[in-house]
Amino acid sequence: MCGRFVCFLNPEQIVERLHRDNYCCEDVQVDCQDFRPSYNVAPKHQIVTLYENNNQKSLKTMEWGYVPSWIKKLPINRPINARQETLEQTKGFYVSSKDTHRCVVVAEGFYEWKKLGNGTKQPYYIKRKDGQLMMFAGLYDINELTDKSYTCAIVTTEASKEFSSIHTRMPVILNQDQVNTWIDGSIPWSSRVIDLMKSFEGELESYQVTDKVGSVKNDFPGLVKPIDSQRGSISQFLKPQCPDEEKNKEIAPFDMDDTNKKRKSNQQEKITHFFNNNNKRKRN
């Protein structure tokens, strides 16, 4: 399953990254009033997709939560994921989209929750190790029942061996050539397309992140920071403390602005120290 992901890039940055990673983008139809870069993209958000429109590869905002064109009443729960196994069937919920309404969802990474032995779940952030954008295979359709007529779902498949320790499912992540094939409307739904729905073969980087990502109200850079970097180094964590220190210890909230101020202050002290030393040497 893929229920949360990250895309904290504005439309211009997305186009720049696509070109840098050698993806073709010939037209931009991103509604800047509806689209908002986010560290915590959730269902029903407007998300950026790459699809084929009039033989052009175009960026377009779509609502995450699929509504098929043939439906007459807006469903309460809109599917955000389309399972590979379901799509391989000849009929089904997504039949109107498989031939000509395939898209790619643009992301920087995604979150997944690992079930722990004590019954709790630990969120992880997953991204490509090579730093490239994640291009999720998706399906879209057009239905006038929704405020935003374009809606979409992310295709999922069985987890790779590397990822299976976190979850049993993962989004279908496409490379450049696969993206071109997937969104090509002239290629019908066939084995050529079906074979693309497989586990990602490249290297992924994953690490534990704060459980604050569980609330859609939270949207800040700290969501994608490894837990260890927020708690301090492991040496600090294991450092023995005397009873008085432990008693008087206060836990301060994580403040990115305060951290940046301290970092700038330290840098300024180093620069001042450097020039003072140089002046002393000159006088001597």
Describe the overall structure.
One of its GO terms (molecular function) is lyase activity. InterPro entries: SRAP, SRAP-like. It holds the Pfam family SRAP. Belongs to the SOS response-associated peptidase family. This protein has 284 residues and is an alpha+beta fold. The chain has a single domain, classed as SOS response associated peptidase-like (hypothetical protein yedk fold, Alpha-Beta Complex). The protein is built from eight helices and 13 strands. The relative contact order is 0.14.
Notable features of this structure?
DNA damage; 13 strands; disordered C terminus; globular; 284 residues; SRAP; five-stranded antiparallel β-sheet; hypothetical protein yedk fold; five-stranded mixed β-barrel; 27% strand; covalent protein-dna linkage; alpha+beta; 25% helix; 8 helices
* Overall form: globular
Tally the helices: what do you get?
Answer: 8
Strand content: 25-35%
Give me the secondary-structure category.
alpha+beta
Number of domains: 1
Short description:
The chain is α+β, with helices and mostly antiparallel strands and 284 residues long. 25% of the residues lie in helices and 27% in strands.
Secondary-structure topology with pairs:
Elements: E1 4-7, H1 11-20, E2 27-29, E3 38-41, E4 46-53, E5 56-64, E6 81-83, H2 84-87, E7 102-107, E8 109-115, E9 121-128, E10 134-142, E11 150-158, E12 169-171, H3 176-183, H4 191-194, E13 204-208, H5 227-231, H6 234-238, H7 243-248, H8 256-283
Parallel strand pairs: 2-5, 5-11, 6-11
Antiparallel strand pairs: 1-3, 1-8, 4-5, 4-7, 7-10, 8-9, 9-13, 10-11, 11-12
Organism: Rhizopus microsporus ATCC 52813
InterPro entries: SRAP, SRAP-like
Protein name: DUF159-domain-containing protein
